[in-house]
Structures are given as structure tokens and as C-alpha cells.
Amino acid sequence: MLEGCRNNDRASQKQLYELLNGFACKVCSTYSNNYNLQDIVHEGFIKLFKNIHQFDENRHEDKLATLKGWFKKILINTCIDHFRKSATYNISAISKQAEEFADCSSNAFDMLSYKDILNAISELTPAYRSVFNLFVIEGMSHEEIASQLGISIGSSKSNLSKAREKLRSILAKKAEWKMHNDNYKIAAS
Fold it and tell me: What does the alpha-carbon distance between residue 96 and residue 162 come to, in Å, rounded to a whole number?
């Protein structure tokens, strides 16, 4: 299949696309808005097919895992490129607002699902979400993030702090709502 892709064989490219499309959508949804997700995924596949000759599948035994790791870097860089090009990208336009935190017990937060947390991350602005994902999920330093996004190190640190604060607020509200909703269900029984 990889050799076919190197020779621009459309059937091999289709096979690889079908194999990696779900993976690509998951990676890109972490770093982009849903409205441009498919554009970014398709651009990532174009870059993959264009540069497939650079991929060395013999570096590790697990060829699929190696390919996914290599493709993930392509996808993340494609998301970053889209982020940079975004006309709505304006970090200074986002003002810091004081938010009320709900007084929730740890039980309320325990009720939050993985999906709730991912949804909360997707509610962050593109600037906050990008820095948060690159720092927390990818493990990049503020220097690397600043270089990748074309922002200052201070902006990277500030955006991470604001992203965490916003996530706490979003998750506290979700936890409070779930706790209130569950208490209502118990009382109605």
C-alpha cells in the first residue's frame, strides 16, 4: 500500500485514506474548529501523499504506529498553519473576565465524562485551545509553542493560564448542572 502511494496509485491512496481518516479526524478535532475540520484533514492527506517518499516504514517494527506518529505531526502542523492563517486570530481581543466558580464537591467533578472534558476544551477560543493542547497534550515547551504559533513566550504562558482558568469555569458549571440534574431526578423518584 505504501509503495503504491509512492507511485501515485489512486487505489493505494484510497486504501490509506480509508485506514487513517478516522485517526486524522480525531487528531484535527483536538486542534481546530469543527467548521474547518474536513479542510484540514484533506490538506493533511495531500501533504501525506506528497511527502510519502520521505517516510521510512522500516524504522520500527510496528509500521502502522510509525506511520500514525509521522502523520500526526503532519496533521498538527497543518492545524497550526490554519490557525496562523485564521482571520479571527486575535489573542488581544479576548479579555479576561472574572468568573464565578460553583462550589462543587469532588463528587460533582467525578460525574463528568471524558466527552464532557473534550467538549469543554472545544469551547475554548482557538488561541487558548491551541496553546492548551500543544502544552498539555503534546508536551511542548512555551518556547516551542511560541515558535510554532508565531507568538511571544509570554503570550503562550498567558494563553495557557487563561485556558486553564476558562476550563475550570466551564467544567465547574457542567459539574454543577449534572449535580443539580441528578438531585432533581432523585427527588422526582
Answer: 8
- Structure confidence at residue 59 as a pLDDT band (50, 70, 90): confident
Q: How many residues does the chain have?
A: 189
Residue written as grid cell 509521522: 70
The structural domains of the chain, ordered by start, are 2-85 (1.10.1740.10), 91-188 (1.10.10.10)
* C-alpha grid cell, residue 145: 509553542
